[in-house]
Amino acid sequence: MKLHPSRSHAAALVILGVLSGCGGGGGNSGSGGQSPTFPASGAFGWILKAAGPTDALKYGLSLVHPGKPDTEYVIELASSVVSDARLVASGSVDTGQLRATSIQPHALVYIVGGDVRSVPMQANGTAPLSRVQRSQSTSACRFVIEANDYATPQASRFIVSTAGGDGQCDTADDGRAEVQLSATLGVVYTPVTGEVPLDVVRDPATLAPRGWIYARSVALWGNGPPTTFATRAVNAPAVTGVIASTYNSALVEDGTQLSVLTFAGGSLFTETQLSSLTTGGSGWQSIGFDANSFYAYRNSSTTFNSTFTVLRITRSNPTVSVLATGPGLISLSSMGRDVLYLTVFGEADNRLIRLNKAGGLPSETVSPLTTFTSVQTSANGVHQLWRVTGVGSASTSYAVDIVNESNATLYTSAGGFPMSVAEASSLNFNASESRTTFVFAGGYADRAFGDATLVAYDTSTLTANVMGTLPGTADFGADFVYASTIGGPTSFGMGFAARSSNGSAQETGAKVFSYDHATPNSLKVATIQP
User: Fold this and answer.
1) In whole angstroms, what is the distance from residue 231 CA to residue 215 CA?
2) Judging by beta carbons within 10 Å of its beta carbon (0-12, 13-18, 19+), is residue 376 exposed, middle or buried?
3) What is the pLDDT, as a whole number, of residue 35?
4) β-pair partners for 403
5) Cα–Cα distance for residue pair 186/420, rounded to 1 Å
6) Which of 197, 198, 190, 122 has its CA nearest to residue 154?
């Protein structure tokens, strides 16, 4: 779901929803003085544990293994300040079907105090903390590009942002660095000088990442220095951003128009420039892509009296069509199987627009400014609709509906609050959305997540599983409770819950829990830290 800066109350709700997919907390019941034992096989789950003011959270990192759900393996304390993390996954790559299947966690790369580190996610009978590898960098901030090699995960690479001369992250002088995983060297960190990569290019035959896209060229990796191939003439405008990329193409912009770069294999890279009358300006945002087309939108300004434009760009023999224009500011977008969903803020109302990919008149639900509605899509044409009413009032209420693309409601959760979308166990390289399972809280109320139920909805089987009750009164009394979950690519997931006091998530007494999203009543709280 793509997010755009928006009206303050609604944005605060969306940000809370996003934060509830990021983590927090910590707790320690000890191991009773016994020598710890560690799982010998299988994949760990992971969670970022937040602590501190909700507008300036600090994060730690913990693992739990499904074979020992009562045990929390602390990798980094919240005081260490983990700033970002990405899962490196392995899978069986089917080049004919353009898929990676049987996806499993391989390693977790994360940034703590400017240092990029990795921890293996497959158990081997030893303490996971003892297996952490460090790049010894000091300035890394966040992951900005990921190039996961599913067939050879140890060959995966990343681009991270880095603190510039002011020593601060997320400022105008930020730089870039490349992070390579190596079976022999561990985590290799190399500052980028000169041009910075804009995105990854994959091999259309093997589907493996093989290079970086730059402003006027593509640089392919090899055993030595990268081999560079021009994609634009030196006197042509430089590409300023990659809007979306597939295994064999990319939608790019240069500030004056959009283009499609096509990767036929080898050193053949072709560009098709699209009409500047339709695609002029900058600031295009991706809604998604499927086997046939890219979908993108642009707001004319950042104010509520903006006008928006939605485009469909075919991937083969690229041509552009305007699917919709209208008044308002697109703040969220999501791509379904046959439709696109847009949350549009206007000066007098908020709208949820359902737009057919093939064109035609859009379907609109118009709501007052005090109602916020958004849709998070799955790969199966069954989606999660979240509605918040009474925004900014003392009687705010929440609901999650599971809907199909005919707008029929398949399941309703009163007090529903989205928590995460489980990462997919099967990845479609030919579409931007592969996920199929939504995780949300039911009964989110005056104490937020306290004593709410944890629910998973599987859009493949149209099944809702209530996995258990989140920590609440028994652990935190009458206090407000902050919680988070993360899951996939297997059915195992993790979460945490913490007391929220005076706008801060409290590390003391916080709970880490795990669950299996395919199994009812599977939520278990970890009580041991070896």
Assistant:
1) 8
2) buried
3) 64
4) 383, 409
5) 31
6) 122
